[in-house]
Amino acid sequence: MSGGVDSSVTAWLLREQGFEVIGLFMKNWEDDDDDEHCSTRQDWIDAASAADVVGVDIEAVNFSAEYRDRVFAEFLREYAAGRTPNPDVLCNAEIKFRAFLDHAMRMGAECIATGHYARVRALPDPAAAQGLRHELLRGVDAGKDQSYFLHRLSQAQLSRALFPLGGMLKREVREIAARIGLPNAAKKDSTGICFIGERPFREFLNRYLPTRPGPVLTDTGERIGEHQGLAFLTLGQRKGIGIGGLRGGSGEPWFVARKDLARNALTVVQGHDHPWLMSAALQADSAHWIAGRPPAAGARLGAKTRYRQVDAECVFSPLDAERFALQFTEPQWAVTPGQSAVLYQGEVCLGGGLIASSSQP
What we know:
Blueprint: H1 5-16, E1 22-27, H2 40-54, E2 57-62, H3 64-80, H4 87-106, E3 112-113, E4 118-124, E5 132-138, H5 155-159, E6 161-162, H6 170-180, H7 201-206, E7 214-217, E8 223-227, E9 254-260, E10 265-270, E11 278-289, E12 300-304, E13 312-318, E14 324-333, E15 340-345, E16 348-359
Parallel strand pairs: 1-2, 3-6, 7-10
Antiparallel strand pairs: 4-5, 5-16, 7-8, 9-10, 11-14, 11-16, 12-13, 12-15, 13-14, 15-16
Helix pairs in contact: 1-2, 1-6, 3-4
């Protein structure tokens, strides 16, 4: 129970279904959990208040050490290497469905439940453990579906997971919360990266990664400014590039198009649809498949290279056990190394990998 409306309604639904429910509040960050930037203290109050209304016990569990070792350290390594990671994906695989799951099992729980908008389907499979194969499905609410963030879960993890909100719309969850009198019924959903909170992103990264100024170049090689470090910039970024109100050329806005680590140079282009921002294909590594095996070579699938993106039609090609390639039917915008490429076959999330590179049309 995070203190938000989704996990609070999840606890209530489970109680209504006859489950014995214990609420667990996870504390994953404590370096500077002050009230100015971090909402942990208020979230705990909200979670405890909601547990009281639902009628379940709740306890706080500290996973800060695990989070720093398994998620935050990797987050910094990726940024230092010039990529743009998504720590929420790693947090689900390593903390919520590993450290938290292990803790719950030690308590004697049969399963864990979260407020994610996703679904699990168990299918008979004689070759699978206990004769069942588990599929991860999109949430019914297309605007809230969170299967993208759960694509690195394993069969063992999914077999212990419950997602009571997967078949519901967000407005229905809010309506239930208001009807049963939850104190957080109207609380805003959390956004952004949990350990950064409301503070400026670059200010936070500056505490852990050094600035390393370098040239900002146009697609013709003209130097038009200086950046403060490639780690602080991501492909497709429009604001905060460091070239002020410079217009020039077509007069269109500037976007980050390339990062040259060897030269410590940033290349920017004008216009949202500039060819250098488009990719016809990508290669990904660190592949993970929910079923334990990759899709068939040549399979036509849907892919997301960022959360909330409409599925992009693509052709799948396995390269080896850890890597795969995707060829898109239509060029995709700002395909970013370090982000996840997540694959779907209809409503089923198959898994995915980390984008390593992409190629222009």
